[in-house]
Amino acid sequence: MDKVRVAIVDDHEAVRLGFAGTCEQFDFDLVGSAPTVEELLIQIEGKDCEVVVTDLSLADGSLVQENVERLIAANTAVLIFSIADKPSLMRSAVKAGATAIVPKSQPMADLAEAIRLASQGIIINNSETSALIDADKFFKDANLSTREREVLSLYASGMSLKQVAYQLQIKQSSAKEHIDRVRVKYAKLGREAATKVDLFKRAIEDGILSGELL
């Protein structure tokens, strides 16, 4: 039987080295190891990587949803290997297409089994992480459009409406209309969004901004 070809993205070198040992123990072919998705994609190009293991949050401030989407676009399954204490980011990862979330508290044998299943295209339902996501008291989906998420991301991260408009090449009045609609959508769900600080909190909760900004 061919070895499963795997790679890891984690900003802690100790985790990457530990994963290399796990690959040797469970007879996986480690084809890439990097601190960012950007670097890993370069490493695994043309290597037919089957599964990538990554964390919810990385030091480069990248968003887990975007990371998962980029990895899936590279034709690989994605496993989240994390302390699993951020339900909003976990939800974003699953929504983006992550195959499973494996808490770092679980035995490495569980991660190895998840890798094998993911390489076969099997979606893994982990009851522990599912319960944590479902219990997230903050989450009520505002169903923001792609443009609303873009505007919210820039505005909540500190830009003025004028700067947002310039960045996205839209009118300032259009940027304001998007923010107004975002506020209304959150307000209808009982999620406070009156101030810029409120919007920043909502963006963090929904995985639109990285928690590393806190």
Secondary-structure blueprint:
Elements: E1 5-9, H1 13-25, E2 29-34, H2 37-44, E3 51-54, H3 64-73, E4 77-82, H4 87-96, E5 100-103, H5 108-119, H6 127-134, H7 146-156, H8 161-168, H9 172-188, H10 196-205
Parallel strand pairs: 1-2, 1-3, 3-4, 4-5
CATH superfamily of the largest domain: Response regulator
How many domains, in number, for the residues? 2
Q: Please mark out the parts with pLDDT under 50 across 5 or more consecutive residues, or reply none.
A: none
Amino- and carboxy-terminal Cα gap: 46 Å
CATH architecture of the largest domain: 3-Layer(aba) Sandwich
As a whole number of angstroms, the C-alpha radius of gyration is: 19 Å
Total count of strands = 5
Helix content: 40-55%
Provide a compact summary of the structure.
By secondary structure, the protein is of the alpha/beta class.
Structure description:
The protein is an alpha/beta fold and 214 residues long. The chain is built from ten helices and five strands. The protein has two domains: 5-134, Rossmann fold (3-Layer(aba) Sandwich); 146-213, Winged helix-like DNA-binding domain superfamily/Winged helix DNA-binding domain (Arc Repressor Mutant, subunit A), CATH 1.10.10. It has helices at 13-25, 37-44, 64-73, 87-96, 108-119, 127-134, 146-156, 161-168, 172-188, 196-205, and strands spanning 5-9, 29-34, 51-54, 77-82, 100-103. The chain has a five-stranded parallel beta sheet with strand order 2-1-3-4-5, sandwiched between helices. Strand 3, helix 3 and strand 4 form a beta-alpha-beta unit. The termini are far apart.
